[in-house]
Design brief:
Length: 433
């Protein structure tokens, strides 16, 4: 029996081709709009089906040859067969569709997308490590697309080349350790001038292994940290005589700032886009020197401290105490004395917090779950809110509340290409009274 043949009419939000067959919608992995494809079913449901391309009969002009030899197996990327233009176009569509269908709101103005390097952009990553008896090989990489196993990578073009081109060196290093079976994970963090690797180990490492790690660290100019338990157990591996600092840093030159971070801290994975994002957010806030501004989910001060270059008073609020400590350190190191930072559960009761009150401008940069608990309990009086989002669905939900219940207008919205070759949509929106 031959496989079905369909024409692809559109893309789903996660980047699968959409076709219609036997009065049902079919989501087909690997297909692009305006293509004719032969496919096989992978799952059948009551109201829709899922499939995978077997053969492309008529290819889209937006189809490109994936650069990575591991593409299709490794779960790190899902859109390398898209042209870059199609990736951006679909991300904008996902954002606007979400705002319209979920939030019932539409921006007055769509911002041009923020674009950066397509390759070697990723400065933060978590790589799995596993010795596979059948293959007699130590694997290093992301999870496979299906999620059950680790992809066997030799290189990775989306990782910063200092790591992406050194997968084989890392494999040789770990394979040469006595306790290679006790290492399940590597955490990668890269600053402007230094690379860090956090080696998770489930058993104590013998002195011989420690010395091999120190030699590798010196040869490759990579900081190596060890992690035996939770994040509090992480420490920098260094010679006793060394006065090397634990922190990495990145610069925001437009604001004359240097921000320090620990490898386990949250930082944006794509520094080129982050620099543009910070500049855009500050621009969209339309700051005046007299403004009082609050930055919710402030982290280590990525937005707070640039805002403080203009505004007279800035408050940053964050749920993680360690990040508030980092923000305070960054303010001090950059000689900023009119920024205050507080630890608070932004999903809990807030009316008795010392920072609670009126602000002229607000910046929101919540996690994927959004900020609905915060928005519902604070009647914002600020004339302008800039919302940075990593999930269009929760942005749309929160936008609906701000527009329908708090009297704001959604004036601007747009996307940034924070994660090229993936379906991840990072966006920014402006609300004004």
């Amino acid at each position: 029996m031959s496989n079905p043949i369909v024409e692809i009419t559109a893309l789903s939000h996660e980047g699968r081709g959409i076709a219609h067959l036997d009065n049902k919608t079919v989501f087909i992995e690997g297909a692009l709009p305006n293509e004719k494809v032969e496919f096989i079913y992978t799952k059948k449901h009551r109201h829709f089906d899922e499939g995978r391309v077997e053969k492309i009969l008529e290819a889209s002009s937006e189809r490109v040859q994936p650069r990575c030899p591991h593409y299709g197996v490794c779960g790190g990327c899902s859109q390398q067969h898209f042209s870059h233009a199609l990736q951006i176009q679909n991300k904008q569509k996902v954002l606007l569709d979400s705002l319209n269908h979920i939030g019932k709101v539409n921006p007055q103005y769509v911002l041009p997308p923020l674009l950066g390097p397509e390759w070697g952009y990723r400065h933060k990553a978590r790589l799995g490590v596993k010795y596979v008896e059948k293959k007699q090989k130590l694997l290093i990489g992301f999870r496979e697309k299906q999620g059950r196993y680790l992809a066997d990578l030799n290189s990775c073009d989306v990782l910063h080349p200092a790591i992406g081109k050194e997968i084989e060196s890392l494999r040789s290093l770990l394979w040469g350790l006595k306790k290679y079976r006790a290492i399940p994970q590597l955490e990668v963090a890269i600053g402007d001038e230094m690379i860090a690797l956090v080696v998770r180990h489930l058993e104590p490492l013998p002195e011989e292994d420690i010395q091999k790690l120190l030699i590798f660290s010196k040869e490759k100019n990579i900081k190596i940290y060890l992690q035996s338990a939770g994040t509090e157990s992480v420490f920098l591996l260094k010679n006793e005589a060394s006065d090397e600092e634990d922190y990495l840093f990145y610069r925001l030159p437009e604001f004359d700032l240097t921000l320090f971070f620990h490898p386990m801290d949250f930082t944006q994975v794509n520094p080129a886009i982050n620099r543009q994002l910070v500049a855009l957010a500050v621009h969209l806030l339309e700051l005046k020197s007299s403004d009082r501004v609050i930055d919710f989910f402030c982290g280590l001060g990525n937005f707070t401290l640039p805002i403080a270059r203009t505004a007279s008073q800035v408050v940053g609020v964050e749920g993680a105490k360690v990040m508030v400590e980092r923000a305070c350190m960054n303010a001090e190191r950059n000689a900023i004395h009119h920024a205050s930072f507080y630890t608070a559960n932004l999903m809990g009761a807030l009316s008795h917090e010392p920072w609670f009150g009126h602000y002229d401008k607000v910046l929101l940069d919540p996690p994927r779950t959004g900020a609905i608990e915060l928005i519902q309990q604070i009647s914002f009086t600020a004339e302008r809110i800039v919302y940075v989002s990593c999930n269009p669905a929760t942005l749309a939900r929160d936008a609906a509340h701000l527009v329908q219940h708090q009297g704001y207008q959604l004036t601007h919205a747009g996307v940034m290409d924070m994660f090229p070759h993936t379906s991840h949509v990072e966006s920014i929106a402006v609300f004004q009274k």
